[in-house]
Amino acid sequence: MRQGGTVVLECQLEPADRRPDSVQWFCNGVELIPSPDYVITPWSVDTGGTCRLTISDVFPEDSASYSCLAVYAGQTVTTTMSLTVSGQ
User: What gap in Å lies between CA 44 and CA 59, rounded to an integer?
Assistant: First the structure.
């Protein structure tokens, strides 16, 4: 990814019609709070069970490991992805 772009990370939860108790996004193990920098689209049947994290105007400092953690009746499911942002 090049600096200045927009990144959309998606986490597809299965089954798509089973609402999780909670979904959280993390950057290098630190929970992300919704803000203008981190737009979190929550789980929804309308999105086919997909949760999204949108990061606008990325910088090399946004290069990190991002995780999506979902909890279903006490069971935790996590997926992790790596983002690398290059300078211009």
Answer: 29
User: Tokens 């200045």 label which residue?
Assistant: 4
| pTM of structure | 0.89
* Residue where the block lists tokens 């953690």: 69
Name all domains of the chain by residue range, CATH numbers in brackets: 7-82 (2.60.40.10)
CB-neighbour burial class of residue 15 (10 A; exposed 0-12, middle 13-18, buried 19+): exposed
Order of strands across the sheet that contains 75-83: 30-31, 22-27, 64-72, 75-83
44, 52 contact by CB (below 8 A): no
Neighbour-count burial of 70, counting CB atoms closer than 10 A to its CB (0-12 exposed, 13-18 middle, 19+ buried): buried
| Tens-digit pLDDT profile for residues 50-63 | 999 999 999 999 99
What is the token pair recorded at 48?
């086919």
